Amino acid sequence: MDPILLKAAESCRWDCVSLGEVMLRLDPGEERIHTARNFRAWEGGGEYNVARGLRRCFGVRTAVITAFARNPIGQLLEDLILQGGVDTSLIRWVPYDGIGRTVRNGLNFTERGFGLRSAVGCSDRGNTAIANSQPGDFDWQNIFAASGSRWLHTGGIFAALSSSSALVARAAIQAARSSGTVVSYDLNYRESLWKGIGGKQKAQDVNRELVSAVDVLFGNEEDFSTTLGIVIEGVSNDFTHLPVSSYESMLHQVAGLYPNLKLIATTLRTAHTATRNDWGAIALYEGKTIHVPQRPLEILDRVGGGDSFASGLIYGLLAAKDAEWAVQCGVAHGALAMTTPGDTSMATLPEVEAVMRGSSARISR
Question: What's the CA gap between 229 and 359, in Å, rounded?
């Protein structure tokens, strides 16, 4: 595995841009979706969450490549993104037809879960502006060659949105790689997104092609098994209680199949209840395994934990830290993100560094 080489920060407008869908998340708080009378609004999306975490927690320059229908919901999403400090200049605005017959903005209803009741997500995201986008809708030459970004992040959620979204992802990846931009991809398998467009086989066809063109790969054990066909030793039906050796074997299998990859990382999670998980990570970089053992974690809202892991790890590499520090940063950031509501991180860099040092949860005043 070759080392990751980044372009100089001063040669680029952005440190990282993310390509993906941003939805309006409607959160019933402690209630259930089907019985709630009030919802709190957040913005969120697997790929966007990484750019938002990098900007808001770590202070690096980020932008999001996406598209919105031009209506009040799209304007609300833009306002929420601006509050997170992410550059909105790459958003493509599409005329709204009045009722969403031809284009709309996505909604995501998510309840957090508690104890034996797991978290539940119900998305309403068909026919959205970004799902309908085509490769020629964005000026890739301007983004990656003229303006410049040190890093591009995208993933399997975006690739699954429509027949054209994988083509958009491929065009972005090719343009980024040709300009020397490091590309990361999160497999993020969602059965609900693939079942209407070819299911598991289609997911494998699309993800295998895209993974063969990127530098950094994120995923969990189910992602690697389902979307890449990796055989995992000792796997159970629910992918729990695997020994560390199984994860190491999995990462080495992926590295052997995709020699283009420079770093492969997966979070480690054992869910005892919806609110009590063990949390850690393992990564492979330059042939060396980096393992952060699982530790008990109390969770308020688990959505976005993996995205915050990715942003913490990416930050470490952008900041020229070594790979072990970067993985530990990802674990700490992901853990903190799951202690607050919403998809996106509310953590600060000093808090992340304190968790990395093993500080206690005593009151700070």
Answer: 40
**Contact by Cβ (8 Å): 323, 314:** no
Closest CA to 119 of 309, 338, 312: 338
With tokens 């054990």, the residue in question is: 221
Q: Give the N- to C-terminal CA distance of the chain in Å, as an integer.
A: 46
Rg of the Cα trace of the chain?
A: 19
pLDDT band, residue 231 (cuts 50/70/90): confident
CATH assignment, 9-355: 3.40.1190.20
Distance CA(215)–CA(184), nearest Å, equals 6
The answer to whether residue 360 scores a pLDDT higher than 80 is no
Only one residue has tokens 């492979």, namely 284
Q: From 224, 307, 346, select the one nearest 47 (Cα to Cα).
A: 307
Span 90-128, pLDDT tens digits: 999 999 999 999 999 999 999 999 999 999 999 999 999
How much is the mean pLDDT over the chain?
94
CA atoms within 13 A on the CB side of 290: 21
More confident residue, 321 or 163: 321
Q: Which is nearest to 58 in space by CA: 347, 339, 359? A: 347
Instruction: Indicate the domain borders of the chain.
Output: 9-355
Give the pLDDT band (50/70/90) at residue 1.
Answer: confident
What's the token pair of residue 195?
């079942």
Which phi and psi angles does 167 have, rounded to 5°?
Answer: -70, -40
297 closest CA partner among 268, 329, 324, 326: 268
CA distance 24 to 27: 10
pLDDT at position 236 over 70: no
pLDDT at residue 365, rounded to an integer = 47
Angle 221-228/199-211 helices, nearest 10 degrees?
100
Q: Which residues contact 351 (CB under 8 A, 6 or more apart)?
A: 336
